[in-house]
Design goal:
Elements: H1 10-14, E1 22-24, H2 27-36, E2 40-45, H3 50-60, H4 63-72, E3 74-79, H5 84-98, E4 105-109, E5 115-119, H6 124-140, H7 142-157, H8 171-184, H9 201-214, H10 217-232, E6 246-247, E7 255-256, E8 259-260, H11 261-278, H12 281-298, E9 308-309, E10 312-313, E11 316-317, H13 325-332, H14 334-343, H15 370-387, E12 395-396, E13 399-400, H16 401-421, H17 429-454, E14 455-456, E15 459-460, E16 463-465, E17 468-469, H18 476-493, H19 496-512, H20 545-560, H21 563-574, H22 577-582, H23 588-599, E18 602-607, H24 615-622, E19 629-633, E20 654-659, E21 662-663, H25 670-677
Parallel strand pairs: 1-3, 2-3, 18-19
Antiparallel strand pairs: 2-4, 4-5, 6-7, 8-9, 9-12, 10-11, 13-16, 14-15, 16-17, 18-20, 20-21
Helix pairs in contact: 4-6, 5-7, 8-9, 9-10, 9-11, 9-23, 11-12, 11-16, 12-17, 13-14, 16-17, 16-18, 16-24, 18-19, 18-20, 19-20, 20-21, 20-23, 24-25
């Protein structure tokens, strides 16, 4: 019997009617495999995954395949987003055996979870032959199978970066990482590497901070060019905002259409920071539209943010998003249709499938005349209305703790910069105000949901759905991303409860996840024991758990003045430093946090009765050095350590600037504050 009907994961629910007798990941499934003396088939994927859907339609919905699986295996279906620890262990095994990884991931294991054969997507005919071969090998060559499994476990156990070399993350190492990124930079198309090309959000954040510290024009230009190339490409939704997961080509033209919460959160931070540092109009627009996408498309009222929009619509990739010239004319009329085809590079031959094109921004409109910008926005609105009548991609509506943390932090930063640059004279002032209102509400919803639903008895749970939290425990990235988000909420709101919540999570992380060398494991010491205990230090699609927890420790230490959290961050970052020097592209968030530590980070407190409108607060946000924390409010506000014993001077708003727990004299003018931050 298929046991997925009561799952909280939308991905598992997609398989609840399969003829395969799926089990969720649980001890009972492995016990059943031992009782029947059969191997385990572990299938790992996620709801927005295109090839997961293909394999499901080809194989798991097929009665013949279902019978083969049910006769000779115990089948376990895993949502990698709900159980990243399980995914990490078996992805490491898959990469060790095949040299590559991806989803769907297909693993055959013994009854104790030891993997002995791994792969990814298999067409149905190949999968049927594989099932038959594995079943035969299990019956007739059991000793060889077990030896293979033992060798795999030994190999993946040695890949965990715990107990390896350590070194301080110095300015020289960070400069070397920036130089390495510059060498790997695609000067023609932006970004790094070729097809498929992923948004390098964490590397861009690092380069922006590196530019702030060193003044490097090269670092800033890499970010500016890459940000513009992505924003004008098909990977960016030119109508509704938001970014797809990656581009299938090397020049951002045709995306893999799934839209992930974590990508859009991290990209929102990039465009917001570029806007803050340069005032760039393009960065402003893209930050605004990405915040709107999060609030409009992924926010679940009364909860948090959904995980993703699907790559497919009714089984067809890109069905919602692609256009022909004729479709543009039908939606806009002859004149505007042709104008839009030129603006969005929609041709008769097409850039996608069947003569269709993915919209790209082929003209520079951000700095165009007001009439051109007005026409562009009118066309965008009408095309979006037409697109809304098409079938829409499904939404994976589970709330993942870590990814919601990333979104909360990104929106909090966006709101502060939006307030900094707000002007009633802007042509889109009303639009920007509307976006900030809905984004603020979505952010607060998500923060409250994490605090009240995901924190259970002081511990984090990984995922929830329909306001009900699931059983899987939070992993290290959850603790890091959520604690950092609570620190961001504390800075934005001046409320002490968020800082208290962050401290509680960090204390659990230090007690339960710490490794002997000062690094961290990805799972708690009392979590379910897998065949290995994962401890991946590299930043990939999201910050590693180690980078995320270090970022939170640094922010919390700056906000509280408690040095032991900073010391823990420095020791943990030293376990990643050797990798930063060799593989800069895979340590972007670690390097970003490294820049904050090198900077101080600065602790900026503004004692004021008007934290929303005080010019000192605006100056602090505008000129904040890398990783600085900024808190504003009434002196001695309860639960706000940075405002303790920080009075107004002569009854006037006063700024207090400290760096590494060493403070400068209080100042009451914007010029004096800017001088202290320069």
């Amino acid at each position: 019997m298929n046991r997925l009907a009561d799952a909280t994961s939308p991905y598992l629910l997609q398989h609840a009617d399969n003829p395969v007798d799926w089990w969720p990941w649980c001890a009972e499934a492995f016990a059943e495999a031992k009782r029947r003396d059969v191997p385990v088939l572990i299938s790992v994927g996620y709801a927005a995954c295109h090839w997961c859907h293909v394999m499901a339609h080809e194989s798991f919905e097929n009665e013949q395949v279902g019978a083969l699986v049910n006769d000779d295996f115990v089948a376990i279906k895993v949502d990698r987003e709900e159980r990243p620890d399980v995914d990490a262990v078996y992805m490491t095994a898959t990469q060790a055996m095949t040299g590559q990884g991806g989803w769907p991931m297909t693993v055959f294991a013994t009854g104790d979870g030891t993997p002995f054969f791994c792969g990814t997507y298999f067409p149905r005919a190949n999968f049927v032959r594989l099932l038959q071969s594995v079943a035969t090998a299990w019956r007739d060559q059991r000793e060889a199978v077990l030896r293979q499994g033992a060798a795999v476990v030994e190999a993946i156990g040695g890949t965990q970066a715990v107990g390896g070399p350590t070194a301080p993350l110095t300015a020289e190492l960070l400069d070397s990482a920036a130089d390495q990124l510059a060498r790997e930079y695609d000067a023609t198309n932006g970004g790094f590497g070729g097809a498929p090309k992923f948004p390098p959000h964490m590397n861009l954040l690092f380069l922006l901070r590196h530019h702030q510290r060193t003044g490097s024009p090269q670092s800033l230009e890499i970010v500016r060019h890459t940000a513009e190339a992505m924003a004008r490409g098909g990977i960016h939704d030119q109508l509704a905002g938001g970014f797809a997961r990656y581009s299938v080509d090397g020049h951002w033209t045709v995306p893999h259409f799934e839209k992930m919460l974590y990508d859009n959160a991290l990209l929102l931070r990039c465009y917001t920071e570029l806007w803050r540092l340069t005032g760039d109009r393009m960065a402003r627009r893209v930050a605004r539209d990405t915040a709107r996408f999060l609030a409009d498309e992924l926010h679940l009222p009364g909860e948090g943010f959904a995980s993703a929009l699907d790559a497919d619509t009714e089984g067809v990739e890109g069905l919602t998003y692609a256009w022909t010239p004729a479709q543009l004319v039908a939606a806009l009329g002859e004149e505007d249709g042709r104008w839009a085809a030129d603006l969005f590079a929609v041709t008769e031959t097409g850039t996608f499938e069947h003569g269709t094109s993915v919209l790209r921004l082929a003209r520079d409109v951000d700095d165009a005349d007001p009439e051109i910008r007005a026409r562009w926005q009118d066309v965008v609105g009408r095309l979006l209305a037409a697109r809304d009548t098409r079938p829409q991609p499904a939404r994976d509506d589970k709330v993942v703790a870590a990814w919601n943390g990333l979104a909360i932090t990104a929106i909090a930063e966006f709101l502060r910069v939006a307030a900094l640059y707000a002007s009633p004279d802007d042509e889109d002032a009303n639009l920007m105000e509307g976006v900030t209102i809905v984004a603020d509400g979505a952010m607060r919803d998500a923060a409250e949901h994490l605090a009240t639903v995901h924190v259970v008895d002081g511990r984090l749970r990984r995922a929830s759905r329909d306001k009900v939290v699931g059983e899987p425990a939070g992993v290290l990235e959850d603790y890091g991303c959520v604690a950092e988000a609570f620190c961001a909420m504390h800075q934005l709101t001046g409320e002490g409860r968020w800082l208290e919540l962050a401290g509680g999570l960090l204390d659990v992380a230090l007690a339960r996840f710490a490794a002997p060398d000062g690094g961290f494991y990805d799972t708690a010491d009392d979590a379910e024991r897998l065949v290995t205990r994962p401890a991946d230090p590299t930043d990939n699609a999201t910050p590693s758990g180690r980078s995320a927890i270090v970022a939170a420790l640094v922010a919390y230490a700056a906000l509280t003045g408690e040095s032991r959290y900073r010391e823990a961050a420095e020791v943990a970052l030293a376990t990643v430093a050797p990798i930063v020097g060799r593989h800069a592209r895979f340590t972007g968030y670690a390097a970003t946090v490294g820049e904050a530590l090198l900077s101080g980070p600065y602790e900026i407190a503004v004692a004021t009765d008007d934290p929303a409108g005080d010019p000192l607060v605006a100056a602090a946000v505008r000129h904040a050095p890398p990783g600085a924390v900024v808190v504003a409010g009434r002196p001695d506000q309860p639960g706000v350590p940075l405002l303790a014993d920080r009075p107004l001077v002569d009854g006037r708003p006063t700024a207090y600037v400290c760096r590494g727990f060493v403070c400068q004299r209080p100042v009451i003018s914007v010029d004096e504050l800017v001088a202290q931050l320069s």
